[in-house]
Give the backbone structure.
Amino acid sequence: MTETMNEATTDPTCIFCRIAAGSIPATVVARNHQAMAFRDLNPQAPSHILVIPLRHVDSLASADNPCEVGGALALAAEVAEAEGLGEGGYRVVTNIGRDGGQTVQHLHFHVLGGRQLHWPPG
Ligand code: 5GP
Ligand code: ZN
C-alpha cells in the first residue's frame, strides 16, 4: 500500500471499489453511509450477500477504522434480517489472506444463510 493509498478512498484496479462506484454492475440490496451490500456472483447458499466498506481496505487485517468495520457489520445484520434469515440463523464471515481463502483484496463480509451451514467450514 502506497502513501497515496493510505489517503485514498478508492483503488481503480479493485473490483469491489468499482462495484462501489457503480462502474461494474452488481445486485445491490442495501447501503449505508459507510458500506454497501450486494449479491455474490457465485452464491454458496440460497442467500449469499457481500458487505463491503465503500472505502478501499485490503482486509480486516489492515482495517484501521472501527466505525467503518462496525458499520459494515451492522449492515450485514440488517441485510440478513431483510433476507428473512433472522429466525433460522445465518453466518457472517470474512476471509483474510492466502490461508483464509481471500480472493478479492477489498474487505468484505460474506452473509450466508438459507440452508444448514456446516462447522468447521473447512
Ligand atoms: P473471498 O474469496 O475473497 O472471500 O470472496 C470473494 C467473493 O467475491 C467470492 O465469493 C466471489 O464469488 C465474489 N465475487 C468475485 N467477483 C465478483 C463480482 O464481480 N461481483 C460479485 N457480485 N461477486 C464477486
Ligand atoms: Zn477496493
